[in-house]
Design goal:
It comes from Caldibacillus debilis GB1. Keywords: Coiled coil. This is Gas vesicle protein. By secondary structure, this protein is an all-alpha fold. It is 95% helix and 0% strand. The protein starts with a helix and ends with a helix.
C-alpha cells in the first residue's frame, strides 16, 4: 500500500514539474516542435510501413556491422597489447643480460 502512494506521489511530482517547465515560452515552443516531428514520423511510418521496416532493418544491419568491426578492432588491440607486454619483458631481460655482461667485463678489466 505504501508503494502505491509512493508511485502516485512520484507521478504527481513529475506532472507538476513538467507543467511548471512549460511556463517558459522557449520550452513550450520546443515541446510543440518535438510533438510535430513525432506526429510526422508516426504518420510517415503508418503510411509507408514497408519503407519504415526497411529503414529499421538497414539501421540494424549497420549497427551489427559496426559492432562486428568494434569486436575486430578490440581483438587487434588486445593482440598488440600482448605483443607489447611480451616485447617489454624480453627487453627487460635483454637489458639485464647486457648489464651483467658489462659488469663482468668491468670486473675482468679491473683484475688486469
Amino acid at each position: 500500500m505504501g508503494e502505491n502512494k509512493f508511485f502516485k506521489g512520484m507521478l504527481a511530482g513529475a506532472v507538476i514539474g513538467g507543467l511548471l517547465t512549460l511556463l517558459d515560452r522557449k520550452t513550450r515552443a520546443r515541446m510543440k516542435e518535438i510533438g510535430r516531428e513525432a506526429c510526422e514520423t508516426v504518420a510517415a511510418a503508418v503510411k509507408n510501413p514497408k519503407e519504415t521496416c526497411g529503414r529499421w532493418r538497414e539501421k540494424i544491419e549497420q549497427t551489427k556491422r559496426s559492432f562486428e568491426q568494434l569486436q575486430e578492432d578490440l581483438s587487434f588491440i588486445s593482440e598488440k597489447a600482448k605483443e607489447i607486454r611480451q616485447a617489454g619483458s624480453e627487453t627487460v631481460k635483454l637489458i639485464g643480460e647486457t648489464a651483467q655482461v658489462l659488469r663482468d667485463k668491468r670486473e675482468y678489466d679491473d683484475e688486469k
